[in-house]
Amino acid sequence: MKFDMVVIGGGLVGASLVAALKDSGMTIALIESREPHPLPGDDSWDSRVYAISPGSTTFLHQNMIWQQMDACRLTPVYDMAVFGDDNSSRIQFSAYEAGMSELAYIVENRQLQVAVWSKLQSLENNINIICPARCTAITWLDSHVEILLEDGRQLETELVVGADGVNSWVRQQADIEVSSQPYRQVGLVANFSCELPHRNIAHQWFRRDGVLALLPLSGNRVSMVWSTGEDHASALRELPEEQLCQRVAVATSHALGEMRLITPPAGFPLNFVHVSNLVKPRLVLVGDAAHGIHPLAGQGVNLGLRDVRKLADILSDRNPQVDVGGFEWLRRFECARKEDILAMEMVTDGLQKLFINPDPMLARIRNLGLEVTNRLPLIKNRLMQHALN
To answer: Which of 13, 53, 87, 216 is 20 to 30 Å from the Cα of 254, by its Cα?
Structure first.
């Protein structure tokens, strides 16, 4: 089987890239090891959510993915309030002040996954979905790449796109150097119903035990993301339901009143991952295979979708006679994405280290920084504009 491009990894980033290239004239294969799960036939909620920026929303809408989702499950964020660890300093962001209808949409992971795969299954014959399937070997040649699947099938392609996550098998096979640093923190997620209306405001607290966020869901519901130390996360998960609700209410200064748990807590380890190269001859890395950042800014998925948007633009605009896997051609993507990725890595890693440091002098400086930034609309708008892309 011969293709112009093979995407390995069918999560949101890899699958949306294929959808974006549906009219490119390229023959494309998407390899994914696990079949997508259908939405449950009940009113339950996914505890894993994303804050989708306006730029990402537009991209998903243009590719008929956004329209596949239940509008009742899409919650706009109109404002964001960020608090320091002294219970008084804060910075506030407003969609109205930014001239936008919303700062982001909060969307369940499973809603997005089902939507993008629904779109893929409606595409034309130039798109080949190979799922479930696992890659067992990959051979890099000057003129093409050969990929061997577990069932014995072999694919040949001009370009491989690694979209297979933070522990990318593709990246390992290409011998791309990675700097990885565990934060020794866990992202603890759960959903709650709350006593007071959230008014479509996202709340975030930089606490000395981590970063705690409450993101609005439809109705009087919120999604919690508490990035905290491994031991603290384990202790929270072991609490009886009533005690966990009380602990979250106290940690958020009862901003939304009493809390009631509606999905059990789950946790995932947090790591910083920096990749030395995004491209090699006949290879491009996108999404978590290309970078891993702390979730405190809620920008991980948007960073991956910006990878996809740029790569899709470059591939769509190419001359059909150009070798799609040529290194000089792929360098355009790397040059276009390096600055954005590096800036987000530095900001998220720097903030994580700044707010986790117990030094009292640093505590005063960081809390003062929130207050000063809140009074400087030009700086606030610059921060917002980058996050809105």
So the answer is: 53
Residue (of 318, 198, 289) closest to 252 by Cα position: 198
Contact 216, 222 (CB under 8 A): yes
Phi, psi for 122 (deg, rounded to 5) = -100, 0
Global pTM exceeds 0.70: yes
What is the rounded average pLDDT of the residues 52-78? 96
How would you classify the pairing of strands 279-280 and 283-285?
antiparallel
CATH number of 2-388: 3.50.50.60
Residue 351 CA, distance from chain mean position: 18
Q: Mean pLDDT across the stretch 92-97?
A: 90
- How far apart are the C-alpha atoms of 344 and 285, rounded to whole Å? 17
- 10 Å Cβ neighbour count for 364? 13
Q: Cα separation of 202 and 222, whole Å?
A: 9
- Domain residue limits, the chain: 2-388
How would you class 240 by CB atoms within 10 Å of its CB: exposed for 0-12, middle for 13-18, buried for 19 or more? exposed
Tokens for 201, please give them: 């405001």
Give the position of tokens 């934060």: 183
**C-beta of residue 80 within 8 angstroms of C-beta of residue 205:** no
- 284's enclosing H/E stretch is strand 283-285
Sign of CA dihedral 377, 82, 230, 222: negative
Grouping H, G, I as helix, E, B as strand and the rest as coil, residue 293 is: coil
pLDDT category at 124 given cuts 50, 70, 90 is confident
